[in-house]
């Protein structure tokens, strides 16, 4: 690890320094407006190659922040970043081409196009749970779209933040990309500046603070938020596959994933069998229960505060009568919490209200899927909704009658890895999209341009009498 990484910065950033960076980026943003696809691609290639070269530093930073196993770092941090970069490198020339539009009847005699112009100076505020992926992913889209970026990563994963500051300084001048480290105070200072776009990933509660601050300057926002993502498992589901895919979705990164399946509705006929299938899947993925704490493939909770929070959710549920067929090991020294399954959970339990963001799987049996759909629709729209079934009618019914940022059928979380799909929430779980072309568009303004050639627009000009008056009536009736 380079020497810069040894001095981990957790203090709030100096606001004058931040203002200086912002002013410098405003100037540079005007220059970048006319940057070519080749210039942007060269930067993305350099960034991608450095990520490959510095894999060991990435493992070390992720391990120092929350004991994240290297293969999980590969799959959930490095792979999405490299994929995002490669996808942009491959398609950028095409994305940047003006999108020509055919004239409508009324606009006959004009030519028209949509240009994707850079938004300008962008702020990216990122969370701690996938500290590199959720910072560098949007950054790649912002650079592809020709912007400058101030990145404010999370203060909770300081080794990853320091690593990114070091990495990005190797690729970009600070007037193009700068990392500003700090916590709430730094974030709030940044939010007071008149950015052209803010891309925020984090909780719905902070998302509201960000949107209010953005309103002050009428800054556009992309909000990638969280919440509780429900899972519905029908009795027609292949239980072994369902359990395996859900164990991975729930316990990878120790459940600290925005799109982790949060709570499970399981058809009552198969609820006991599902618990047993989950036990087997856990053993297959992470080994026997007594050995799990020593298994390097099983991640930790990010810090003591969150460890206590998740333990508190389990305690609250069990005090209200929940059973724990799987679980029961914790160590606050290293923030270990055994994979936990809860059944017979009281409806008033906090675990059914708050986003869990930890390795706990509450199981709620159901007999009528209409009740499940009604319960989901009574809550804020989730970031993800998963359905496990072999019965196509059941799948159709669930998808057609609910809303969610994204969904998987018979899997969980993999929607994030599909470069051709938008990734985003809906209302409480987010506004706007990221990834691939959608990410490029989030950081671009779609500018409509009409070129006059031989249109009939002059026929609409006053004075409004005689032929002009007749022609306007004709246009209202027929030319649209
Ligand atoms: P958070 O909202 O607490 O923090 C996110 C960022 O906002 C951090 O950089 C933090 O410093 C900053 N921040 C915190 N409080 C602030 C305030 N009062 N004013 C201004 N800035 C502030 O979220 P977190 O705990 O880092 O991450 C977990 C949350 O993020 C979960 O809700 C999760 O579902 C969500 N999330 C969503 C996605 C997604 O892509 N939709 C991805 C990861 C996480």
UniProtKB/TrEMBL annotation:
Gene3D superfamilies: Aldehyde Dehydrogenase, Chain A, domain 1, Aldehyde Dehydrogenase, Chain A, domain 2. The active site is at residue 224. Residues 11-447 form the Aldehyde dehydrogenase domain. Keywords: NAD, Oxidoreductase. The keyword Transcription regulation does not apply. The keyword Magnesium does not apply. This is Aldehyde dehydrogenase. It comes from Salinisphaera aquimarina.
